Amino acid sequence: MTDQVAEMGYAAERRGLSTKHREWLAGYLFVLPDALGLFVFLGVPMVLSLVIGFFEVDGFGSYRFVGLANYARMMKDPLFWSSAKVTALYAIMLVPLLYVFGLGLALLVQKTNRFNAVMRSMFFAPHIVSLVVVALVWQLMAVDKIGVLSRALSALGLTGVSLLGNPSFALVAVVAVSLWFLMGYYMLIFLGGLQDIPAQYYEAAEIDGAGPLQRFWHITLPLLKPTSFFVLMVSMVAAVAGAQAFDIIYVMTKGGPANATSVLILYIYQQAFGFGAFGYAAAMASILVITLMLLTAVLFLLTRGGRFEHE
Amino acid sequence: MSSRPASSQAIILRFIWMTVAAILAAMTLFPLLWMVSIAFKTPAESFSPSLIPTRPTIENFIYVLTGVPFVRYMANSLFVSAAVTVVALFFHSMAGYALARLRFPGREAIFLAIFSTLLVSLPVIIVPLFLVVKALGMLDSYAGLIVPAIFNAFGIFLLRQYYLSLPRELEEAAVIDGAGYWRIYWSVILPLSRPILSALTILFFLANWNSFLWPLTITSSPDLWVVQVGIANFKSQYSASWNYMMAASTIVALPMLILFLIFQRQIMDSIKTSGLK
């Protein structure tokens, strides 16, 4: 070992200062492709999203500065407000459900054995399927009267319920599909977190006579704090701005009925690519970007600069 | 004496526990089984409540594969997903290695900048990204489908974490031999990354095969449609023909489910470790 270190020092000395500069150069060159790509396809759009909102963009790509006009329009646009409300409702329903189902399923299949391995795979399987297919399959099952879900509901006494045609059910249905698609993923994240809790804690608690509920409350939950935090943060971002909501809603309901499932990202998309109102769409997106930046800042502060390792 | 009732109680509890898990898992899987079931049913039977078709048919599959340019959509998806995955893993492992191992001024700042894009999702930047890609002349092209999809902080992040956990000794031996950084990366680091790269290959391929919003936004000519855009359009064309749509869905979903069955350990392990710890 000492020989090795001495030899390395000798090698570095032999090459002198240039070694340091060679490492610098190598570092920059290795990072360059990704850094450039992220800059062009993520950084620039992020900054642009804050800028374009002050312009009117026409189909030919010419920009005209309009000041706060897009933002003023937003304030007076009832569809913007209803989309913001639907987005908030979607997140408020989905995030706690994901937490409960993710953790619940993880606890259900926590023990490592053959049976649980199969169960885990089954719970995760929906996440493998594309959201377009997911949306199509659920839409088929929810077809009024004759879809298998509608039949099951009428067997339970809920006859004539139109799952996707009734504004008061449609968003709940979209939440249910999102939950079905996402819960397996969060189950795995929680399993990762549970794995890291040292078994001695549970053994000691058991010797002290703590029941399963007490162990859950006093050991599992507190030690799961970082995982819980991650899950809440990521699921919140996914609910507010994730592509999964867009894909499901775009295919299943197109925002209907009566705009009951029109979330902001869908409304932004329709304004931009349906009506060519790029400036207005960007103005609305900038509100989301600011929300996400604030969330990222919180995540960043609380994890001490993204150091996800154990201390 | 007292240990026997306790242990039989434990067995009953364990049995209930397993039953609950099995019922929930069966419910979770039901929609996928339903999809496959309808794909094999005749149109007349599409809405019959039985899971097993009375007269199974492969007509639906034949129609989807021959009546619409579905094979073309599949080929597009395959090409785009494979290209994105290969280039992305190559770039991300280079960046991850440099950010974990090499010392150069600004390294922390670059890492922070990359980290700050971690939570940015496509829907919020779709408008400006579309305008950037348009300005670069990549609208409605394979380049437009592939290039923007390559770059994401998640892969860099995971690879950096992985390289931080690798022992330094192996590289040091190469340094002593006088190897340059490229050679260290190529012949020491890359071979050592095989486990994580294979897991990420599956994850990236899956994500790109399943992606919908970006291909939907960037392509207009049907020749460039990927499979997800294809079936979404299929829906507006054949809105009543659920048997065709489920056959198409099955063709799209099945390769991924098979991939998952084969690599379930690696896929689930790599996701498990991606959480905040």
Which fold does the CATH topology of the largest domain in chain B refer to?
MetI-like fold
Bin the strand percentage of chain B: under 5%
Q: On the 0-100 scale, what is the average pLDDT of chain B?
A: 88
Strand content of chain A: under 5%
Can you describe what's shown?
- The complex is a heterodimer of chains A (about 300) and B (about 280).
- Chain A is mainly α and about 300 residues long.
- Chain A has 2 domains: about 1-50, no CATH class; about 75-300, MetI-like (MetI-like fold, Orthogonal Bundle).
- Helix content of chain A is about 75%, strand content about 0%.
- Chain A is built from 14 helices and 2 strands, in the order ααββαααααααααααα.
- A two-stranded antiparallel sheet of chain A has the order 1-2.
- In chain A, a hairpin with a 5-residue loop joins strand 1 and strand 2.
- The longest helix of chain A is centred in the N-terminal third of the chain and has 35 residues, at about 20-50.
- Chain A starts with a helix and ends in a 9-residue tail after the last helix.
- Chain B has about 280 residues and is mainly alpha-helical.
- The mean pLDDT of chain B is about 90.
- Chain B has 2 domains: about 5-60; about 65-270, MetI-like (MetI-like fold), CATH 1.10.3720.10.
What labels describe this entry?
heterodimer, A: 311 residues, mainly alpha, MetI-like fold, 2 domains, two-stranded antiparallel sheet, 14 helices, 2 strands, globular, disordered C terminus, B: 277 residues, 13 helices, 75% helix
